[in-house]
# Entry
Amino acid sequence: MPTPLMGLLLLVSVVAVPACIVVMVLILRNPPRSLSRICAVLALIFGFSATAVYCYGWFSVALGGPFPELCEDSNASGAQLARLKQDFWPLRNACIYSDGSTVEHVSMSINVFVYVPAGLAVVLTCAAVFLYRRARHLPEGTS
# Structure
């Protein structure tokens, strides 16, 4: 993805998270509280959070990233560092040495700060749709 598009996505995500938090506070302060709406807003919060963290990591990789410090000048067999290969999905770094050996580094923070919120966003979206459809089919007099 081009840099301006990722920058715009980062900006939108960073602005959307506080906006969603404000919406959540308003929903919780004003009854009646719809559980499907609460799940939907939480899904937005987690989805935009995961997007913001991923975009930040993408810029980190695109601008040289924190990864070069992880690569040693030579490996255990004495081969010199030939080049670095950085991938944007998943955000990872590979140290490629002159003898052809490769050492990959994938940050655990990617799993914690991107995959978990993204997974929660998907689960909460499904829950919101289920709760919305269930509430729509209930007769008026029942709870």
Q: What stands out?
A: The beta strands are 81-88, 91-97, 102-106.
